[in-house]
TrEMBL record:
GO terms for molecular function: 3'-5' DNA helicase activity; four-way junction helicase activity. It comes from Coptis chinensis. Pfam families: Helicase_C (PF00271). Its EC number is 5.6.2.4. InterPro entries: Helicase_C-like, P-loop_NTPase. This is DNA 3'-5' helicase.
Amino acid sequence: MSPQDKRIKARIYHGQMSGKDREESHRSFIRDEVHVMVATVAFGMGIDKPNIRCVIHYGCPKSLESYYQERGRCGRDGLAFICWLYYTRSDFAKADFFFGESQGIQRESIIESLMAAQKYCLLTVLARVFRRGIRIQ
């Protein structure tokens, strides 16, 4: 096998691309012409592809509902998959800043969603620490 054969075919997808480029990225991913798609959250909303094996999230989700929706893109064919979530505590401060203009009940609802996402992230990490050395099926 030549070094060129070992290359991973990848594309990008984001809102600032031309419609033609977004369409081409989407088409090539759906047809398995590329193996990795680096994309914004918007890309995943239209994907109904059964053989996605891995989704990597960068940044804490705005809510648990959106996280479950995004990670739900994996393993639709029933085979094994993995979903990674990378975040920092500063993600929560940024989110609070971005939703700072919201008022009243809307703001309370947004903060409640963010707190649930933060709690999920922290408890998941702690659970992994406490389970270290134990084989988890």
